[in-house]
Design brief:
The chain is mostly helical. Helix content is about 45%, strand content about 0%. The chain is built from six helices and no strands. The model has no long low-confidence stretch (mean pLDDT about 85).
């Protein structure tokens, strides 16, 4: 009987506890559809070096030194921040075949970064 009273007390006490509302961040950009990033990726020619699967095996990658980044390697992508990817897209990668895409809008860059992230598979 005492156990039932304790359980009832705990249930009433827990239900009376105030919950804090989830903090919403209004300054975060809205996620863009992956199809938008895919369109930019394909139409801009990223696919020719980085490949359809984002694995760096595009038809132009043959013989490239260094090889194009493998975006499908989740372990590599975990180390790459969105700002680092944005910088590489905007400025290119010196010493590689990666050109700069300064003409991309902020929205296009965000869309491509999101699309690149969709390739990532974490390998053990």
């Amino acid at each position: 009987m005492a156990r039932m009273g304790l359980v009832l007390f705990l249930l009433i006490w827990i239900s009376a506890c105030e919950t804090t509302p989830v903090k919403k961040y209004s300054n975060l950009p809205e996620p863009l559809p992956l199809t938008e990033g895919q369109l930019v990726y394909e139409e801009s020619g990223c696919v020719h070096c980085h490949g359809i699967q984002g694995d760096g095996e595009g038809f132009l990658s043959v013989g490239m030194v260094p090889r194009p980044t493998d975006f499908s390697n989740g372990n590599v992508m975990l180390l790459r921040s969105d700002s680092a990817l944005t910088k590489a897209i905007r400025l290119g990668m010196p010493g590689t075949a990666m050109p700069s895409y300064r003409n991309f809008t902020d929205r296009q860059v965000r869309a491509v970064v999101g699309y690149l992230r969709s390739f990532a598979i974490v390998r053990e």
